[in-house]
Design brief:
mainly beta; Immunoglobulin-like; 3 domains; four-stranded mixed beta sheet; flat
Length: 232
């Protein structure tokens, strides 16, 4: 069965045979869709016979992304990890559910993930109410501290830069504010250079991954890997 809206030319796999929708009626009987089908050819590139799913290239692809797999939170605060959910590469609003490895550090209270004790724990993040979507849960390592001035930060900016191009980066706190007085450095000057908060990819066709480091005024360090990719 397809996992996207049914329309004309939508394909089904039924008993290892492919069928194409030529007409449908979803208004005559509420909750019932009548389909008129015609036999179609199996497409070995896009039809998954084993799982009986046609046109797998048309399935929506959901991704749950963490800008930083280590995030810090203050004791007795609500843990709101920084993450992005995309559908076919486009960010969308969507809820996630959490599973804590240590309920003495973090646990669900009143449907919220709370930092209940100083220490460290692993938090598993998974798209909520999406059991029919193929997804790999992500694991976030959190550190809960009694010092409320220490909080989670991540480097905001693209994961890739094309050769001879540049990109701008910011260090963003868990409260959504840009952290001031940050010094950015890169791990390999043959791949890229940095001026203030702008990273410039090299012009010499050298590809690879460079680590961007952000150091705050109180010497907290955060990193982000950036891939240098071809111009075309």
């Amino acid at each position: 069965m397809p996992r996207y809206p049914i329309e004309r030319a939508t394909n089904f796999i039924i008993e290892e045979e492919s069928w194409k929708v030529i007409e449908y009626d979803q208004t005559s009987v509420p909750g019932v869709i009548y389909l008129s089908l015609t036999e179609n050819k199996i497409n070995l590139m896009y039809d998954d016979l084993q799982n009986k799913i046609a046109d797998i290239d048309k399935r929506a692809k959901y991704e749950l992304l963490l800008p930083d797999t280590i995030q810090r939170f203050a004791l007795n605060s609500i843990i709101e990890p920084v993450y992005t959910i995309t559908k076919n590469g486009v960010p969308i609003p969507m809820e996630v559910e959490y599973i804590s490895s240590d309920r003495k550090v973090a646990r669900i209270i009143d449907n919220k993930l709370m930092a209940v004790g100083a220490g460290a724990a692993d938090i598993e993040l998974k798209l909520k109410n999406c059991d029919d979507i193929d997804q790999q849960p992500l694991t976030l390592h959190i550190e809960v501290t009694e010092n409320p001035t220490e909080y989670s930060c991540y480097i905001k900016g693209p994961d890739t830069i094309r050769l001879d191009r540049k990109a701008t980066y910011e260090l963003v706190g868990s409260d959504g504010h840009v952290v001031p007085e940050v010094i950015f450095t890169v791990s390999d000057l043959t791949l890229a250079t940095v001026v203030d908060n702008e990273v410039f990819a090299n012009k010499k066709n050298v590809l690879g991954t460079v680590t961007l480091t952000a150091t705050t005024s109180n010497n907290l360090v955060f990193t982000k890997d950036i891939r240098i990719i071809p111009l075309w």
